[in-house]
Amino acid sequence: MHTTAGFLEQSLATKLGNKPEGVDHLVRSAHRLFPEGAPYWHDRMELRNELTAEQRKFEPLNADSHLAFICLGLCSCALYEFDPDDPIYFIDLDGEFQGTFRSRKTLAVGYNETRCVHEDVLSIRMPRKDQHALDLSQHLNDLQALVNKHNIHRGLVTFELDSNEKNAGITVNEYETLLVERDITDVLKNPLRYMLDHASELVRHPFTLPGKAKKVLTYELHLAIRDGLRLASRSVSAVEYMVERLGMRLPLLESVIDRLATPLETRWMNLGTTARFLINAGNEEPHGRITTGTYQSPILIQWRRPDSDMRNLRVRLLQFV
């Protein structure tokens, strides 16, 4: 139900050793890429025409959390093979704003297996440009009709890119115009943009910020990253050398840089290729409802045009049994 808080996929949690330290380091790396207070379009309240003047006073400035959610590959609905020794990680990226704390709710559903009751392939036409984010929520109404038809009480809706699709991924997040048409597009073009913008601000006003020495040193590291990435295929080794020369140990930063240095046609950060929605019903209800939050939409993101301007998306309705 959330767009700035979500679950880690089990595969990623396993890679991190299922330990809080690994998860914390990964989240910190994302926050370095998308620092709080950077000049995000989503946070320019004077441009948010869908909000009233009163709503703008209380709207959180949280574009950094939306972008971190997407790049970390967080999901609103995760599947875990149960193991009593392994935790399930729910990460809240912006639980507090101006002294007000968010209240988060989540639901755990256990099942033995799933049965596929409907499967279809959607051909999605994409615009003739490399970087684009497309709202897929219009398909949810048709899927809800199928849920009713098959009397699914509890189960899943899954959107999955065809295995042949490249340079694209799927997330579930807020489809707000400035966020998807400006911030996400800008980040796809230059993943380091907001980190470097924020670093430049640190250097202009270093003595107005707490912990000035550490932050100025971090700025030097940001410059090293920028220069290192210019070395293209050898950038990771160059950045590791620069980090060593600066005497700093920023956990998992190397893995983030590795993803940035990898050609974009391979993958963008941890953005996945599958989105899921829970189908759930009360005990007395004849069929379930596709569970979505007020601002949640499945979003197809591409960073390079496909040859045909079409992308194939497989949709499944799964019933828990």
What features would you describe in this structure?
With 321 residues, the protein is of the alpha+beta class. It folds into three domains: 5-101, no CATH class; 114-187 and 268-320, YjbQ-like (Jelly Rolls, Sandwich); 192-261, no CATH class. Helices cover 35% and strands 20% of the residues. Strands 5-12-7-9-10 form a five-stranded antiparallel beta sheet, with helices on one face. Strands 6-11-8 form a three-stranded antiparallel beta sheet. A two-stranded antiparallel sheet has the order 1-2. Strand 9 (274-280) and strand 10 (289-290) form a beta hairpin. Helix 2 packs across helix 4 (63-72) and helix 8 runs antiparallel to helix 9 (235-246). The radius of gyration is 21 Å and the shape is globular. The model is unreliable at 206-210, 212-217, 226-254 and 260-267 (pLDDT under 50).
What does the average pLDDT come to? 80
Number of helices: 10
The 3D shape can be described as globular
CATH class of the largest domain: Mainly Beta
Number of domains: 3
Order of helices and strands: EHHHHEEEEEHEEHHHHHEEEE
The fold-level CATH name of the largest domain is Jelly Rolls
Q: Which radius of gyration do the C-alpha atoms yield?
A: 21 Å
The CATH superfamily of the largest domain is identified as YjbQ-like
Question: Structural class of the secondary elements?
Answer: alpha+beta
Fraction in beta strands: 15-25%
Q: What's the quaternary structure here? A: single chain
The CATH architecture category of the largest domain equals Sandwich
Stretches where pLDDT falls below 50 for ≥5 residues? 206-210, 212-217, 226-254, 260-267
Helicity, as a percent range: 25-40%
